[in-house]
Structure prediction request, 852 residues.
Amino acid sequence: AQPIHLADYQPFTHLVDRVDLTFRLDPKATRVIARLNMAPNPVRPGRHDLRLDGEGLRLIRLAVDGRPLACQPDATGLTIPAGDLPGGTFTLETEVEIAPEGNTALEGLYMSRGMYCTQCEAEGFRKITFYPDRPDVMAPFRVRIEGDMPVLLSNGNPVAQGPGWAEWDDPWPKPSYLFALVAGDLRAHSDRFATRSGRDVALNIWVRPGDEDRCAFAMGALKRSMAWDEETYGREYDLDVFNIVAVDDFNMGAMENKGLNIFNSKFVLASPETATDDDFDRIEAIIAHEYFHNWTGNRITCRDWFQLCLKEGLTVFRDQQFSGDMRGHAVKRIEDVILLRARQFREDGGPLAHPVRPDSYVEINNFYTATVYEKGAEVIGMLKRLVGDDGYGRALDLYFDRHDGQAATIEDWLKVFEDATGRDLAQFKRWYTEAGTPTVKVFEAWNGGEAGGTYTLTLAQVNPPTPGQPEKGAKVIPVAVGLLNPNGDEVVPTQVLELTGPVQSFRFEGLGARPVPSILRGFSAPVILDHDRTAEDRAFLLQHDTDPFNKWEAGRALAKDILVRMAATDAGPGTRWTQAMAAVARDGSLDPAFRALCLRLPSEDDIAQTLHAAGHVPDPARIHAARRRLALALAETLGADLPGMIAALVPPGPYSPDPEAAGRRALGNQLLALQTRLDGGEAAARRFAEAGNMTDGIAALASLLEAGRGQAELAAFEARWGGDRLVMDKWFALQVAHAAPGDAAAVAERLVAHPAFDWKNPNRFRAVIGALSANHAGFHHESGAAYRFVADWLIRLDPANPQTAARMSTAFETWPRYDADRQGMIRDQLARILASPGLSRDLGEMAARLMG
Ligand code: HT7
Ligand code: ZN
Prediction:
């Protein structure tokens, strides 16, 4: 397949003024009748053929202004010659037949356990009807659904309904990727929201019968999101109804279709018995994210798919702000950075690196990445820091005023910031157009004197080569810095240094003593800080830094230094980190959630990333052993205090997922994992037996599996939850995630033979194959068994669901880090994937890029 280039963008030849759709639902033969009111696009003068996208559609009828045409579709669409079109406005009518029942790719109209649903982003609408399936063609839609289902839903407001039919009208012009339809035997969990201008909005969460009592948390999150967007961004909801539907078979997390969000049921359904604190957290964040898209994505959409970060980066930034407001900014920021480093830095450092705004793609589904989403959000965080909160507020108001109802670009976005703040963003734009994680090297100089000394901080940036981009210019990097004196007092409060050149020095004068700098506070830029620091300085910052992110970062860096040393040499764990962490664990003045984050060791993949960056070849087995050894050392340091500390952290009262209680459980369960290293699982087995909520139950089970126990508990868990798909996903994933390195592939092999392993369900597939690739030492076991197993399953899944197969192939993206044997084994698997007959465009593009 040929790549598509941003440079080739042209507006569409025609405008669509209005869309009328009729669906006659049938699992094997659904009829879709489309009436499109169209006109030539004045920005494309002259007469043009009309090219409509369409895939897998059986054309029944085609007419222009009532006159039948004999044009026949090809594999990707339908061309109506200019000569068959009137010079002015016209009505195009098509009737097609599709088979939702056989649609396992879960794009377009498909069926999930008897229920019809759609997924149109990015290019799924073309699997429903012939249409210019591109985001810059926007039109109001009216939809009639006929089908033998109790609930028939589409976008917008309900117009009319009767037995077996319903009509919906969406007055807001939208691109086809935001179209949605759902039909099924569903029950609603309902509520209402009054907007600040007085619109009374009906809210419904639609689920399968029996799941109604697991919707309350999601509904609360929706109402909090609606209120927050009004208060923080001045954005109100704009329809009379907001519907959410939970679906079991779904390729990603959720989808922001106008007025009809469709969610993976995993991100809606929650009760204390079935969902963990992390699940509750994610549900709140994803509900918010999809809701926020109503303005950043739907009212203002993307001109083309290269601009995906325009809506995704901004909406992630907004959902992060929201979660910070709801649950605490310090902990949220640390969690976001852990995720950014684990996913985006990993991507940026390998063969799949691409700019936040890519300039070419083969399959756009392959660009819903951590770079577009998470780095896209970081870029907005930097912009906000550079222009200040007021400047950001003015720019956003201007963005909504100027571009409401439009399909916009990154150039439009940067222009509103320039116009609102007067700042030139030409250099800043490199963050959008250049891939790779910059490294900022730090040099310090101290010049003491009678009247006070001068401290000079020199920062140098290095922008590494990435595929297709060997050389890069310097970026604008906001580096938030504060200085502490040797007593631990902050002598220079946070200020933002702007690094714009390759090397720059910043002077701080009149200091009484050589300060200890706290650099990159709040992780003010997505960069790797290369700062040779002593363990004393790190321990000092862990104790004294007033910036919670850098306080955590200091402990993290201490742990990483030790782990790198342990994995690369025969060094032992020493006592510095363990003593420091024991003090953190016991420090009742610190938020338990923050303490839990401090105690959480860097992941094995993160250690491998760090070792690679330091010029070592990571050995997965040694990393695994070092990490366990360090955890044991911490457990031994806390020793006999652990049971008392664990007991004291149990939150009072009935289960609640609120941040305070969740933080206590997070710390308590982390200490339980340490306790398991000392008692072999006695306490964890008791905790499992007594657990009154899923968070504690899963944590205890994970600890037991880590200790090589837990078989009886797994059986009890299965006996209790065997009928619950979402809970059983946890059961599958946990066993693979916590399998010993040499057993992981065999455990996965055994689980795919389990009668409940439904490989066509993306959640279940991810639970086993995804968990195996996330078990670092298991995936990279020297036998290569896990590499073969994952490749086998990607090859099997690809014909059924190319999007999910392609997404999961990122398991192989880190191959250049490892030794020649592992590199060879992974490349053999990639070659095998590439040689598979009938390989999809999705997986084909990924395997080719992974090969490099
Ligand atoms: N905008 C959506 C991205 C998306 C998607 C969702 C579900 C299935 C397939 C999908 N392809 C793209 C989700 C979001 O970012 O909010
Ligand atoms: Zn999104």
Notes: The two ends are 17 Å apart (CA to CA). Residues 119, 121-122, 251-252, 254-256, 289-290, 293, 312, 368 surround HT7 (ligand 1) (CB under 6 Å).
